[in-house]
Automatic annotation (TrEMBL):
Protein name: DNA-3-methyladenine glycosylase II
Originating organism: Roseateles rivi
Domain HhH-GPD: 55-211
Keyword DNA repair assigned: yes
UniProt keyword annotations, A-Z: DNA damage, DNA repair
């Protein structure tokens, strides 16, 4: 699946993907070398990653980190892996006290229930295709297709995801391929077909071209 990096796990396919994309795409041929040895990295476990995504919805990165830290403190500290059973053992008022909205309390509880009751098949994910995993994830309250696709890219490190609902991806495609003009999802999909089977990698470099700091999730 991947090899250890300095702060996480990086995909084994990355170098091969870069060679493939640089041969086939004039923009990526210029972009990829600009970022040297930078790689996508996966951190944490599935439940913690998804819980962080729910906490961070519709608030700034700084605010999300502050809420997450308070939430994690309820569960024995910020470095502890968050366990679904421990979340379900908390009273909703405790979660509200950490800064979660009532809606996010419901979302976090539903997420924890899905994991605790085995309604998501984490151990089978390695053998399931992307759409099957997305179907499982979007059945959880508060998780839409975009969040599921981010999870596929950043946690499961699936190589061929094209998140057409991502504003940054569409902006980057417009900037690099359409002279700065806005692009439709259909145009982005058509362009992305040329990036297969490494559409996640191309997407990551498009993101990096807009924000040089490593994308993390």
């Amino acid at each position: 699946m991947g090899r250890p990096g300095t702060a996480g796990v990086t995909p084994d396919y990355w170098d091969e993907a870069c060679k493939h994309l640089m041969k086939r795409d004039r923009v990526l041929k210029k972009l990829i070398p600009q970022f040297g040895e930078a790689r996508l990295q996966s951190r944490g476990d599935a439940f913690t990653t998804l819980a962080r995504s729910v906490v961070g919805q519709q608030i700034s990165v700084k605010a999300a980190q502050a809420v997450w830290d308070r939430f994690a403190e309820l569960l024995s500290g910020p470095t502890t892996r968050i366990k679904p059973a421990d979340v379900l053992a908390l009273d909703p008022t405790q979660l509200r006290g950490a800064g979660l909205s009532m809606r996010k309390v419901e979302y976090i509880s539903d997420l924890a229930s899905h994991f605790e009751e085995g309604r998501v098949h984490v151990r089978q994910w390695a053998h399931m295709d992307d759409e099957a995993i997305i179907d499982e994830l979007v059945a959880i309250r508060g998780i839409g297709r975009w969040t599921a696709e981010m999870f596929l890219i950043f946690h499961l490190m699936r190589p061929n995801v094209l998140p057409l609902d991502d504003v940054g991806l569409l902006k980057g495609i417009g900037q690099h391929y359409f002279s700065g003009e806005p692009v439709s999802r259909a145009e982005a999909r058509e362009l992305g077909e040329g990036w297969a089977p490494y559409r996640s990698v191309a997407t990551w470099y498009i993101w990096r071209s807009l924000d040089p700091l490593p994308v993390d999730y």
